[in-house]
Specification:
Layout (H helix, E strand, L loop, with lengths): L18 H8 L46 E11 L2 E2 L7 E3 L6 E3 H5 L4 H4 L1 E3 L5 E7 L4 E2 L5 E2 L12 E2 L3 E3 L5 E2 L14 E3 L4 E5 L10 E3 L10 E3 L11 E6 L8 E5 L13 E9 L4
Parallel strand pairs: 1-17, 2-5, 14-16
Antiparallel strand pairs: 1-18, 3-4, 5-6, 6-13, 7-8, 7-9, 10-11, 10-12, 14-17, 15-16, 15-18
Length: about 280
């Protein structure tokens, strides 16, 4: 899946390193994130003449693939990944208060590299949608507490947590209290705050499953219609609208917005060296 220019993913970190994130890092996947700064419907076209979202935001008749004489451009060499709103039910941390929303939510759902801070959006235990409104100060840290960044594909190590909102354990690594009691990675000795972070009710963007994608807007302008052959049987003919961006969605990388999978261990579909057809939006 799926906050302002944060990276997006969904999974649950427990007392061990997040399986999904480690699998993705091992596969050299760049993490991605939605940007809530985008205006709703910024130039998003309708389905007429090439697929994408219908005028009412729903797929109408499934559009065909682009015709040979279609006005667009085939582009090659794309990596296709997937993202989704993070379900709070997958997480194990203690319920804590957080700026911007009422009530309490699981701390790892809020701040971990598999939660709302990374994914941008989430589905709370109450079934409601939430999103990160301001990333605050600081980037990401590994499980051992070292800084890491999407700017170099997390070469310093897989991100585990925001650079705050956690406790340091005896060795300086990241730990947090569990809902069932105890700690995720050894007892916490010092709390590390995360100034400026806020969350908010509702989704960050009016995205639709298997119809919206995150792109690098320098390569594919927002509002463009994009045909991805690997998704031609998704119920929408493989057509999407470029509505989202991400801090690690760079160059030929597209992230497909989809519902959360049944298992928190799922990484979603992953395709490499894909050709896509782009009908550039006219703004």
């Amino acid at each position: 899946m799926p906050g302002p220019n944060n990276n997006k993913m969904a999974h649950v970190p427990g007392s061990t390193p997040p399986a999904r994130l480690l699998a993705l890092a091992g596969a050299a996947l760049a993490l991605a994130a939605p940007s809530s700064a985008l205006a709703a419907g910024s130039g998003a076209p309708t389905a007429s003449g090439g697929g994408g979202l219908a005028p009412n935001g729903q797929a109408s008749n499934v559009p065909p693939p682009p015709a040979k004489n279609a006005h667009g451009t085939w582009m090659a060499g794309f990596k296709i990944t997937e993202y989704w709103p993070a379900p709070e039910s997958w997480f194990v941390g203690k319920l804590v208060a957080t700026p911007g929303v009422s009530g309490k939510h699981r701390i790892d759902w809020l701040y971990s590299a598999m939660g709302v801070s990374m994914e941008g959006d989430g589905i709370g235990l109450d079934g409601r949608r939430y999103h990160i409104d301001s990333m605050g100060n600081g980037g990401w840290v590994t499980k051992s507490g070292g800084s890491t960044s999407a700017s170099d594909d997390f070469s310093a190590g897989a991100p585990y947590w925001r650079a705050g909102g956690f406790w340091s354990n005896r060795s300086g690594g990241v730990t947090f209290p569990l809902q069932k009691g105890g700690w995720a990675n050894g007892a916490g000795r010092r709390y590390v705050p995360l100034p400026g972070v806020t969350f908010a009710n509702g989704p960050s963007l009016p995205l639709r499953y298997f119809q919206s994608i995150a792109v690098d807007p320098h390569l594919i302008p927002l509002g463009s219609r994009v045909y991805i052959p690997a998704y031609r049987n998704d119920g929408h003919g493989g057509w999407f609208v470029a509505q989202d961006t991400g801090g690690a969605i760079n160059q030929r990388h597209i992230d497909v917005y989809r519902p959360p999978p049944a298992s928190p261990n799922a990484i979603g579909d992953y395709h490499t060296n894909q050709r896509v057809f782009v009908i550039t939006a006219s703004h």
